[in-house]
Write a structure and sequence with these properties.
This protein is of the alpha+beta class and about 550 residues long. Helix content is about 30%, strand content about 15%. Helix 8 runs antiparallel to helix 9 and helix 9 packs antiparallel against helix 10. About 35% of the residues are buried. Bound molecules: S-adenosylmethionine. The site of S-adenosylmethionine has 19 residues, from strand 2, helix 3 and strand 7.
Length: about 550
């Protein structure tokens, strides 16, 4: 490849410890496409060795020019061979790069196959299916004499996993002293990569159902991923992929405004890392222009917005808060919000009993795990029966019905019959998804101290929660009157529940009769779910909510 002056911009050189590699012979600026190359040999990938494969490779090598054949034979080979066919096969196996987006075919490229691996790679490889060439883009400025490096492994993994894969696939042990990151930074970077990888699993969990039932949670995971990618400081292709995931989630829920912005960010990321002529830029450029054409658009309309909804004049950080639908941090003294999807998850977002879900649990020794925070499942009793034991059908915050079986010593008889009513709401601490042998997945409830029933529907409980969020909060000494909505510093507290505030007796009367406080006041005297600091885990809690003296549950 030549620079605009017509001079080559890199050369094949010996690189200590790595065989040969490509080295810049002048400064190459970030964003430069340094390579755009067609394969000289193509093969199916991940296919077992066969006579047919060997014949195909030999025929292709024989058809090469003398220069190409020599260059091919000089590429590194980690496999032992006894004859020419095995030698060719070994070179192909060590070096083939994907030439189909789905990775089903591989190709040998005389220049691209000479680029060595680095975990802090300064260039990005990509098969551009649109122009049918392998391209390499420079991710940051590369200086004269610096080696050009790419990242060999598909998904970014931590150091240990990377080492295993590099040794198995490419036959070398990555020497971290050759990596330009100092050890501490490299470890920090590894932790970030681990977390990106973990979040990837959480984002994919639940498929379309997850996107529709708990989109806020999925968006939250992607938000975390994007922050980590930004801290990594690399223009990794994972970043545009994360933006595309976010676009799909919001569009599936009817939010065209955010969908357009996320799609634009995805396209711009791909453009920088892989060029403006790749399929992703072309396809998703259309998505950025017309998000309503996406196949998932309108599956739900719960976040409905128009395409030009983006607020103007916000500070960049406020704009990001809006874009990612971030939950506002709590003010001191503000009560827990039952609509928080992290603390009060729907069934699909509960941890699975047979997995250690690191979103819910942590460990210092990887043997014993304890919760990172508290959580509580809320569901409305749709039906119940007592056969061998009490069993209920429960409707969760997403409207999904699941079975709840009582495996307590009393098989559910601990609950007073007056509590077990259709339309009442069950709260279960630290609930987990359980796979029953005899019916669909649900919750297996074992400890009577972990359950409480509230004598109102889930809808009513959430509506009450909304009122509490609005009327019990104090901001800079100012509160809002529950009766008339006036904001003032000198309001009087409801003497019974202490949750709501009023200008005077008239407002208190209006709140009592017209705004439903008559029914809610008693409930608010027992706010149980609302008062606890759910994010801080010192010890397990039980109903009525207090911390257990020991950590055994
Ligand atoms: C695709 S080739 C790269 C070009 C190769 N160095 C050559 O001389 O042809 C892959 C091989 O390069 C070597 N290699 C690549 N990156 C390396 C690294 N970071 N450290 C040590 N060896 C590396 C390994 O032997 C690997 O099997």
């Amino acid at each position: 490849m030549q620079s605009t002056t017509g001079n080559p911009i890199y050369a094949l050189r010996d690189v200590p410890g790595k065989g040969k590699g490509l080295v810049a012979i002048e400064k190459i600026s970030k964003g430069t496409r340094i390579l755009s190359e067609e394969p000289i040999i193509t093969v199916p990938r991940n296919k077992p060795d066969s006579e047919q494969l060997r014949i195909s490779i030999c025929q292709q090598v024989d058809a090469l020019s003398e220069y190409q054949r020599r260059a091919f034979l000089s590429i590194h080979n980690i496999h032992v061979y006894r004859n020419t066919a095995e030698q060719y096969l070994g070179i192909v196996r060590t070096n083939a790069l994907p030439i189909k987006t789905n990775g089903s075919e591989g190709g040998i490229f005389l220049e691209a196959c000479r680029i060595n691996h680095a975990c802090d790679n300064n260039a990005q490889k990509n098969w551009n299916g649109n122009i049918k060439r392998h391209t390499v883009y420079v991710l940051r400025d590369i200086y004269k004499g610096e080696e050009i490096t790419i990242y060999y492994l598909g998904v970014h993994k931590n150091r240990e996993a990377r080492n295993e894969a590099l040794q198995a696939k490419f036959g070398f042990i990555y020497l971290y002293r050759l990596c330009s990151l100092p050890l501490e930074q490299s470890q920090e970077s590894d932790r970030r990569l681990d977390e990106i990888y973990r979040l990837e699993g959480l984002i994919g969990r639940g498929g379309i159902e997850g996107i529709l039932s708990s989109p806020l949670r999925s968006l939250y995971y992607i938000d975390q991923q994007v922050r980590l990618y930004n801290k990594q400081g690399s223009d990794d292709a994972g970043l545009p992929r994360a933006f595309l995931d976010a676009a799909q989630i919001v569009i599936a829920n009817g939010d065209l405004g955010r969908g357009r912005i996320f799609a634009e960010r995805a396209v711009s990321g791909w453009w920088t890392a892989l060029g403006g002529d790749i399929m992703e830029v072309i396809e998703h450029g259309t998505l950025a222009r017309e998000p309503s054409k996406h196949k998932l658009y309108g599956l739900s309309m719960k976040w409905r917005t128009t395409v030009d909804v983006a607020p103007r004049g916000l500070e960049p950080s406020d704009f990001e808060d809006w874009l990612w639908k971030r939950e506002k941090p709590k003010h001191p003294g503000q009560l827990a919000d039952l609509r928080s999807h992290a603390t009060f998850p729907g069934f699909i977002d509960l941890p699975d009993e047979n997995d250690v879900d690191l979103d819910f649990y942590e460990s210092s020794d990887m043997v014993t795990y304890r919760p990172r925070r508290h959580w509580c499942f809320l569901g409305e009793i749709a039906d119940f029966a007592t056969l061998l034991r009490l069993q209920m059908e429960i409707k969760d915050v997403n409207g999904r019905k699941i079975p709840l079986y009582f495996y307590t010593d009393g098989r559910g008889s601990e609950l007073a019959p007056a509590q077990v009513q259709r339309g009442y709401t069950v709260a279960i601490l630290y609930a987990q998804r359980h796979a029953f042998m005899f019916c669909e997945p649900g919750i297996r409830h074992e400890d009577p101290r972990m359950i409480k029933i509230f004598p109102l529907s889930l809808h009513e409980l959430l509506a009450l929660n909304d009122q509490v969020q609005q009327f019990s909060i104090e901001l800079d000494g100012i509160r809002m009157c529950h009766g008339c909505g006036r904001k003032a510093a000198s309001l009087k507290q409801c003497g019974k529940c202490s949750s709501f505030w009023y200008c005077d007796r008239a407002c208190q009367g209006a709140g009592w009769t017209e705004k439903g406080h008559k029914a809610n006041c008693k409930l608010l005297k027992d706010p149980d779910l609302l008062v606890l600091k759910w994010d801080e885990f010192d010890n397990y809690i039980r109903f009525p909510l207090y911390a257990a003296e020991d950590s055994e549950v």
